[in-house]
Design a protein that fits this description.
401 residues
Length: 401
Amino acid sequence: MFRRAFTAFTYRDFRVLWLGAFTSTVGNWMQEVAQAWLVFDLTKSSFYLGLDDFLGQLPILLFTLVGGVVADRHDRRHLLLGSQVVQMSTAFVLAGLILAHVVRVQHILLLSFAAGMGQAFGGPAYQALIPSLVQKRDLPNAIALNSIQFNLARVVGPLLAGMTLAAWGSAACFALNGLSFLVVIVALLGLTIRHVPPAEKTSILHDLKSGLRYAKGEPAIVALTILASLTTFLGLPLLTFLPVFAREIFHGDINRFSQMLAISGIGAVCGALIVAWLGRFRRMGLALLVAQATFGAFVVAFSMSRVVGISYALLFCTGALLLMVFSMTSSLVQLLVPDHLRGRVMSIYMMAFRGGMPLGSLVAGFAASRTSAPLVLGVNGVLILLVAMYFLVRSHGVREL
């Protein structure tokens, strides 16, 4: 059972990249916690929390499709290296602004956009690189284990952020995040597998159109892309609003916020372990839709809870279910697409998946500023449940996968 759950770790390059990515993601989560708390401390506004998340993800909407084309035309490792350098620079700049006592919310918003630019080109390259590290039969396991590193970091990062903030302040969190990028850079340089792009290259516009044409002609890919976009649009404001719940609903401090993030991350790790152990199985599409419907119901329950213990339990469950939805959706898309189109098709998927985050945060933040964060989350949970029920009834190729 252990070997089945961790099959992808038998591949040397996957282990190296996983370790580097985990270290960097721990740093990213330290910055996420410190930055969200800093924005809310400077502005006392749910809207600015949503705006910061929106601007950090906006480049995903604007440039990810181009990033996918570039990932198919050039060495994906080189793109990832450039992406890490950009994100590392923004972390160090933000640390410097805080140490100089000149930081303003406008600086944070601008640096969030700059870091998002790096992710817009690095994200498709990373997603397209993973399948080349393992055999196809082990791809769902690799994707689930990759989700584990992200969410295990979501447990470790917030806890380290809480301790670091208490001991040295937010500048230390941003500086440590900058240093963490050096680990993933070393990991990328140590990979033995190389991506060899095609010798004959057409125009970027032609390649982009061919990727869009392929994705449009596959009903299951279209349906999975729409499903991912709606899930992130409606589901991820749950994490965006955690500072509001920590401070205003449960009257806590940064430690309460970091605990809530960590519990959600522990749930996500458990969900990823379940998907990793299952691997590729029959009716994965049906299981995906059932998990999404259950996730929507638990979001509604969390929005209504005013008991700390119950809310923690609900956060654990929502973290597990959301990760299961994301892992199974990504696995199904990766299994359907051919390698020579992988960068382009995954960039389309990522634009929908990641693009739903900023739009959802911006809309939810604005709505919460007019009403309340719990009410907005409750409405979102109901809508998530309705989306799952629609695909369960109409399918569009998802239920049969």
